[in-house]
Specification:
about 475 residues, alpha+beta, Outer membrane efflux proteins (OEP), 2 domains, six-stranded antiparallel beta sheet, about 65% helix, membrane, TolC family protein, OMP_efflux
Length: about 475
């Protein structure tokens, strides 16, 4: 081997060593979640998941179903979620296009005056003196340059960087679809919660109006008794105060109804309007199937968990792509077209030209920026792991709370019904005793207030029971099918 060849091989080896220097210290990092779910949910009676029920099977009230359908069509969060899917779809196409050669049509024109004492100036002058150069082949001074043809650039994906960028974009595209499902689930739950709140307020208003009528009647009786000397002004004022308190409750309840209607109109994309509804919360029925299923089903059903998992997949691909930035990249730049220094000769067959240039490049002086980007990507990957694990833990807790809520509110409702029955009997007895003078007016007022409060609490417990069912549906990942 000659000394010249040895030097050439040494130079090539040195360049290769520089191009790959430091790459070994940046091994591929894969961030993984450590998830250990319990085998079953507490109080879950079977493995049939409530999330598997479509909206029209879970809810039996057609007016509520119509509201949900209207919201899914007109709600601005829904419309925005659809556009986020389109943004992610476009980003996926953009990253996929990087794997293909970029081809462009080029039409270039320029002129350059070379100095007499430059390499090109002397070379062109000497060329024109050659007997082989004549006519149109003589180089003018200044020298024009015309090119018309196709130019291309292509980065060969040696280390999978571009492919990993595409994988990350695809995972994020799927995550936006899960985000859309999450909006559907959340919006369904919002509509149902407000609808049941509206029904509860209607029931409360009916209870208050009924009690106002009873209290007005009681006030008239005590006024008559005062005239007959059987009651005092103090009794009249006490009955009057109770009546005014109940009338005040009527106006606050009417305001709650109006605000709830406006919220529902907002979610359905309307400015105002009366919400069609059943006005009795006691008539509303719970869905037949209210089990949550096994915890592993939650991973498949809940859109937020699925989105977090996809974001984790995307960031693992980002980490691989960031690591590939340390490795050499191969770029090819082919071209084909017509090139001449005279415009009239541009389309002459002799002006046809083509070529290709390939080169390896690797970062040398900007490695600190690449190291920082690599470290940032790894940190974001760890955040994605924590978010994924947090979403699973949060989902498990939400399902457990709502399962317990349904059961506990059911018992509370039954006991409150019994309490109300007892209070109504007590009020009837108090009225009878008051007539014969064996009970005072304070006992009547206390009994009336207790009945009113118990009736209002009964409506609220029924509302909370229905809200727990809706929240279980949402937390188990239902509503988006």
């Amino acid at each position: 081997m000659t000394l010249k060849k040895a030097k050439s091989y040494t130079l090539i080896a040195g360049i290769a060593l520089v191009l790959t220097a430091g790459c070994k210290s940046y091994q591929t990092v894969v961030t993984k979640a450590d998830v250990h779910l319990p085998d079953t949910f507490i109080n879950s009676r079977d493995t049939l998941s409530v999330a598997a029920l479509p909206i029209k099977q879970f809810f039996s009230d057609q007016r509520l179903i119509n509201l949900i359908d209207s919201a899914l069509t007109n709600n601005y969060d829904m419309l925005s979620a659809m556009q986020r899917i389109e943004v992610a779809r476009a980003n996926l196409r953009f990253n996929a296009s990087k794997l293909l050669p970029q081809v462009s049509i080029a039409a270039n024109a320029g002129v350059e005056k070379y100095g007499d004492y430059t390499q090109n100036g002397v070379g062109n002058y000497d060329t024109n003196l050659s007997p082989n150069v004549s006519g149109n082949k003589r180089i003018p001074n200044p020298v024009p340059n015309y090119f018309l043809g196709f130019q291309s650039s292509w980065e060969v994906d040696l280390w999978g960087k571009l492919n990993n960028q595409k994988k990350a974009a695809f995972a994020r595209f799927l995550a936006t679809q899960s985000g859309y499902k999450l909006v559907v689930t959340s919006l369904t739950a919002q509509i149902a919660n407000l609808y049941y709140q509206l029904m509860a307020s209607d029931t409360e208003l009916a209870i208050i109006k009924k009690n106002i009528a009873l209290q007005e009647n009681a006030l008239e009786i005590v006024k008559i008794q005062k005239l007959g000397g059987r009651a005092t002004e103090l009794a009249v004022q006490q009955f009057q105060a109770q009546l005014l308190r109940t009338k005040g409750l009527q106006y606050t309840t009417v305001q709650q109804i109006k605000e709830t209607e406006n919220q529902l109109n907002f979610l359905t994309g309307k400015y105002s309007g009366t919400i069609p509804r059943d006005t009795s919360i006691t008539a509303a029925t719970l869905p037949l199937a209210l089990s949550a299923g096994v915890p592993s089903q939650m991973l498949l059903n809940r859109p937020d968990i699925h989105a977090a998992e996809l974001e984790l997949t995307a960031l693992n691909a980002d980490i691989k792509a960031a690591r590939a930035n340390f490795l050499p990249s191969l770029n090819l730049t082919p071209y084909v077209g017509y090139n001449a220094f005279r415009a009239g000769l541009l389309f002459n067959p002799g002006s046809f030209t083509y070529g290709i240039l390939g080169g390896l490049t690797a970062p040398l002086f900007n490695r600190k920026a690449l190291k920082a980007d690599y470290a940032r990507t790894i940190a974001e990957g760890k955040i994605a792991v924590y978010n994924y694990q947090k979403a699973i833990l949060s989902g498990f807790q939400e399902i457990t709370n709502n399962l317990n809520g349904i059961e506990n509110y059911r018992h509370a409702y039954q006991l409150k019904q019994q309490e109300l029955h007892s209070l109504q009997s007590a009020l009837s007895v108090a009225n009878d005793l008051y007539v014969v003078g064996r009970a005072n007016y304070l006992e009547i007022i206390t009994a009336q207030r207790s009945v009113l409060d118990a009736e209002l609490e009964l409506a609220n417990i029924k509302r909370n029971m229905l809200l727990s069912a809706v929240n279980l549906y949402q937390s188990a990942g239902g509503g988006w099918r």
